[in-house]
Amino acid sequence: MAETKHQHLVWELLQTNIEAPIKKLYKENFEIVVASICNNGGNRDDGADVFQEALVLLIEKVRTGQFRGESSLNTYLFAIAKNLWLHALRTKGRRSKREKEFVMNEPIAIEPDKGQRFNGADKDLSHVMEQIGSSCKKILNGFYYEKKSMRELLAEFDYENEQVLRNRKSKCMKSLKHLIVSNPALHANLKLWLSYE
Amino acid sequence: MNNELHLDELLDETLHSNSSAAEKVEWLKQNNVSNPEKELELHETAAALVQRYAILQQVTKVHQSFLSENNSSDSAESKIKVVRLQTYKWIFRAVAASILFAGIWFAYEYGSTSTTQLYGNLYQPYGLIVDRADAAQNIQSGLVQAFKDKNFLQVINIYSQLSATSVREKFLAAISYMETGDNLKSVKLLQEILLFNQQTQSRLYNDEAEFYLALNHLKLKAIDQALPLFEKIHKDSNHTFHSRVNSGTLRRVRWLK
Fold it and tell me: Which element (helix H / strand E) includes A26?
């Protein structure tokens, strides 16, 4: 029963609209993660930030097939959140005995360093996406996130034909790449993010 | 097809491929892509950025609505929780303090209990408030007077010259020995009184003899002899010295064993 529920949640996270499974994960895990952060030198705001970042990472792992279902989503999410918080503690130079105990209680093995290397990149990321314009945003989102074919996308946009849409999409990617390259910090963060295993 | 579009479509194809990065680069080279490593890396980064943005948008939306819902519903609840936690905190503190005080008290009691200290607490001088002399026993009036005067050496002197002694004379002599520090002689006389009472089914000075015998044993550190007497006095609510021996007394005597 629990296994079926877990599998269903994974399936839901693979869909385009993932708000419903995100809500479930918030309901089931938010307070636990926040309490854990609060008990380890953080406050509720820290906990909320860490949870949000951990959830994004979890969803990416599910969608890229890196999450293999060896543990439950909740356990995995908790482990990611712990790693993110450990990284934040180190960054703040607050490593302590408490942190060491925290590491010892790690439920599953994930390298702590590979946690919040992308922290702070989200704002830059959103800024870049805003800069390419709403039309480009929709096209690229449809193609790369929703995995729609050009024919499916053509039905949603007011372009003369598929070739025009292809050109448009190509130009959108070019502008996006240009913005990434012109923001070395974001570029570096994104490269690290891609190497996150 | 222009070059940019062609390159874009070639790179998109690599995204759907299960080949390794090296294989992808090789494939791009075969398709005349210049600087394929850089192009591939940048294309993958851009595509990943788009995907992350979509996920982030949805997570942020739920995050904000979840926090605002929780803040409104939790504000009252969290206040109650805080009050509850504060109350529990004080209760725990009070319990901890009680345990600590009990521990300190126990440690003090245990550490400070000695035969001398306990003897001092239990001892009460025997006084002849009412003349309980039995005319039939022909009591040596000099002995009684000396006892009333607390001249215990005189009592012992008179007693030792008597050829025959009554229970009362024996008891007063026993107390006098006790008062002068000769507990062994006191024990001997008190044991004789108890034996006599047992043999004659009498109870004359029996309670007094038991209590002071127990005290003598305590003074002599003979706890195994003292404890049964104190237990007997404690169990017997009609015993003259019952109120002097409570459960605390028994516990402290047992600690001395």
Answer: helix A19-38
CA-CA distance, A125 to B57, in Å (whole number)?
Answer: 11
What is the enclosing helix (H) or strand (E) of A2? Answer: helix A2-13
Closest residue of chain B to A18, computed from CA coordinates: B58
First vs last Cα of chain A: how many Å apart? 30
Tell which phi-psi region holds residue B127, choosing left (phi > 0), alpha (psi between -120 and 50) or beta.
beta
Give Cβ neighbours of residue A54 (< 8 Å, ≥ 6 apart). A33, A77, A80, A81, A84
pLDDT at B78 exceeding the cut of 70: no
For A3-56, what is each residue's pLDDT tens digit? 677 889 999 999 999 999 999 999 999 999 999 999 998 999 899 999 999 999
A195 touches chain B (CB under 8 A): no
Rounded to whole angstroms, the Cα distance separating B189 from B172 reads 10
> Taking CB atoms and an 8 Å cutoff, what residues of chain B touch A191?
41, 45
For residue B136, the 8-state DSSP code is G
ipTM of the complex: 0.85
The pLDDT tens digits of the residues spanning A71-125 come to 889 999 999 999 989 988 887 765 555 555 555 454 444 443 444 444 566 778 8
Structure-token pair, residue B157: 């002197």
**CB within 8 Å: B52 and A56:** yes
